[in-house]
């Protein structure tokens, strides 16, 4: 999904996966889907000062959802939402909790380099989606660079990089994760004194 030259990557539901549109349900709204799985509401056109979509909070039930704006509740294939003020329901979509979005695995001598620019990574529902992990191959010449990227939600971390690598993040934002906004793990080569390295420049994380 794209908005103003920025592209979001995530498992957005398509029209055939919706069983209904948004309908008024008492003091909140309800929409049904015809697929199984945990979903979360998101509107990529309704963003905060950092260009991040407003994060809807998962509630324990319909009554709690009705009491607080910016919340949602899922019961089987029915999703209940108490939208933010001035929310445009026509732009309020659902994303499916998905697995790892980017994975570079395999040969222990892989020497690849990947760069991402103006891309948002959206794994799915808070407290339901798996980590948004980028796996590097087990070699210190693996390198990743992120320019102006955003990382939205995650069961644990909004963005987590693992294995051996060098990573560089410039002007990136992470938000609404269950634990860490930015998280890095290294498979250090203690014998050869090789470790992973990360550089963050002008990055920000909040509401985790």
Give a quick rundown of the structure.
By secondary structure, the protein is mainly β. The protein has 1 helix and 19 strands. The model is unreliable at 125-131 (pLDDT under 50).
Question: What does this molecule look like?
Answer:
The protein is mainly beta and 208 residues long. Helices cover 3% and strands 43% of the residues. It has one helix at 62-67; strands at 2-3, 6-10, 23-25, 28-32, 39-42, 57-58, 71-75, 78-82, 93-96, 102-103, 113-117, 119-122, 133-147, 150-152, 159-170, 173-175, 182-184, 197-201, 204-206. The strands form four sheets. A six-stranded mixed sheet has the order 1-2-12-14-16-19, with no helix packed on it. Strands 10, 11, 13, 15, 17 and 18 form a six-stranded parallel sheet that branches. A hairpin with a 2-residue loop joins β1 (2-3) and β2 (6-10).
């Amino acid at each position: 999904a794209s908005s103003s030259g920025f592209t979001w990557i995530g498992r957005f539901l398509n029209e055939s996966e919706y069983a209904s549109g948004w309908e008024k349900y008492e003091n909140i709204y309800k929409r049904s889907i015809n697929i199984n799985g945990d979903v979360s509401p998101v509107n990529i056109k309704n963003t905060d000062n950092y260009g991040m979509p407003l994060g809807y909070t998962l509630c324990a039930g319909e009554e709690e959802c009705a009491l607080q704006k910016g919340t949602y509740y899922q019961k089987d294939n029915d999703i209940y939402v108490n939208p933010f003020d001035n929310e445009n329901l026509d732009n309020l979509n659902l994303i499916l909790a998905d697995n790892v979005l980017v994975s570079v695995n395999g040969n222990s001598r892989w020497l690849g380099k990947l760069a991402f620019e103006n891309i948002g990574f959206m794994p799915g529902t808070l407290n339901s989606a798996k980590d948004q992990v980028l796996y590097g191959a087990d070699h210190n010449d693996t390198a990743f660079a992120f320019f102006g990227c955003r990382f939205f939600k995650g069961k644990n971390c909004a963005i987590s990089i693992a294995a051996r690598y060098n990573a560089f993040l410039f002007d990136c934002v992470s938000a609404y994760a269950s634990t860490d906004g930015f998280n890095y793990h290294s498979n250090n080569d203690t014998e050869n004194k090789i470790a992973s390295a990360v550089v963050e420049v002008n990055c920000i994380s909040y509401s985790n």
